[in-house]
Amino acid sequence: MSTILYARVSTAEQNLDHQRTQAEAAGFQIDEVVADDGVSGVTTRLVERPQGKRLFDMLRRGDILVVRWVDRLGRNYQDVTDTIRDFMRRGVVIRTVINNMTFDGATQDPMQQAVRDALIAFMAATAQAQAEATKEAQKAGIAAARDKIESYRGRKPSYDRAKLAEVMDMLGQGHGASAIAKVSGLSRAAVRRIIDTPEDAEAALARWEGGRA
């Protein structure tokens, strides 16, 4: 079994070494790094990238694929969700450095599967939304984009990404809103809103996160 880090940078401000350093600082023991430099996650699917293509050839059942976040796999919703599900069908476990999320196709519990698939969809949608927001900001100019983003953001969520993941995880374990609120420290009303409309909760959080290319 191998632990492989896939890293991608698309701008001069990003750094491949930094992604490995982050992964190792989070406790991952990396056996090999596969990296694409100067490749867009918006316009180029993972399977079409020089090194991304290698992943499909080298990953085997039982291997762990580590990425800083799902946006390193891509910025296109369909591509990211298809890629993660393809790897899971092969028996590959995908783990993220940020928030230490784990996507494993081996789970048989229907509720855990539903929560897992929902998280994959939310994170992939967020990656695409951030890319589109960044593109719009570049077109409009920094000053104009700032005004637009501030008016678009709305009220700041009372939770962060880790709290959102905690709520979804506890929900998948069968806990109710009151129990989740007690453990997470969020109000019951906030937990209820996340449970009732998780897609809105994810969208609100994405609006308050900085865009990543």
From TrEMBL:
GO molecular function, one term: DNA strand exchange activity
Highest rank taxon of the organism: Bacteria
InterPro entries on file: Recombinase_CS (IPR006118), Resolv_N (IPR006119), Resolvase-like_N_sf (IPR036162), Resolvase_HTH_dom (IPR006120), SSR_resolvase (IPR050639)
Keywords linked to the UniProt accession: DNA integration, DNA recombination, DNA-binding
Claim: DNA-binding is one of the keywords in the record: yes
Cited Pfam families: HTH_7, Resolvase
Active site positions: 10
Stored SMART domains: Resolvase
GO biological process: DNA integration
Matches recorded under Gene3D superfamilies: Homeodomain-like, Resolvase, N-terminal catalytic domain
Domain Resolvase/invertase-type recombinase catalytic, residue spans: 2-149
Family statement: Belongs to the site-specific recombinase resolvase family.
Protein name: Recombinase family protein
